[in-house]
What we know:
heterodimer, A: alpha/beta, 4 helices
Amino acid sequence: MDLKVNDYTTDDGLTVISVEGEIDVYTAPKLREKLIDLVNKGKFHLLVDMEKVEFLDSTGLGVLVGGLKRVRAHDGSLELVCTQERILKIFRITGLTKVFGIHDSIEEAQEKRKSAK
Amino acid sequence: MATVEVSFSALPVHVRTARLIVAAVARRSGVPETLLDEVRLAVAEACSRAVEAHQRHCPDEPVRLELSGDGRRFEVVVSDAVPGDDAAGGADIDPVSAASAPGRDGSDPSAGPADLGLADAAELGLAVIQGLVDDVKIDTTPKGVQIRMSWPLRDA
């Protein structure tokens, strides 16, 4: 299955990137290009919705880590929406649950963002 | 069950094909459904690492995948043809540090194919394999690196 990547920006300046399909060594460059493009357009607060991701490997993790480094260079943020156990497992194995904010829903991420302001 | 052997060109697109084949053979061999995601991910990591190593050193050589079951365990061997590849040495990456540090191979961390340094990306894959699979052995031979992994079968 191909990777579908779409984005929109909310009124409070959060850019939500919806990812659907398999993120692996073949498709990860598409997500990387999207993250680079958004940062180049000045979007520094990103939320990657992974609820429709069917497969994620370390290449995909690498792209997310790379995106995080890019937005942090602009005092931005990159957080995730993910409730799928099989996807969360790979974040736990690699210790990346300590690095990424991981939310149950887009709404929850927005609420936390508002309360942190 | 007879051994299934697959050779594929060192192209990222074929890692997905390898994943599909492994899942099908593993299911047919009697690997429990609860382990199939783990098998798929571990083999994908090993194949991705091999493909990236081949693309750097010997892009025309195929990556080899062997699948076999002895009635008790399902075994997968992923072999590359890169002599002296340092794959076995480095499954000790700390991804948390990698998130804030430059690539360990001295590369620009924002420029690599995985958005980590190349060495870090390969090691992250190995770290995932070692975190996932209880029975894994990584051998560096003069012919290349072999990653051997196995899982119990349902009725073992």
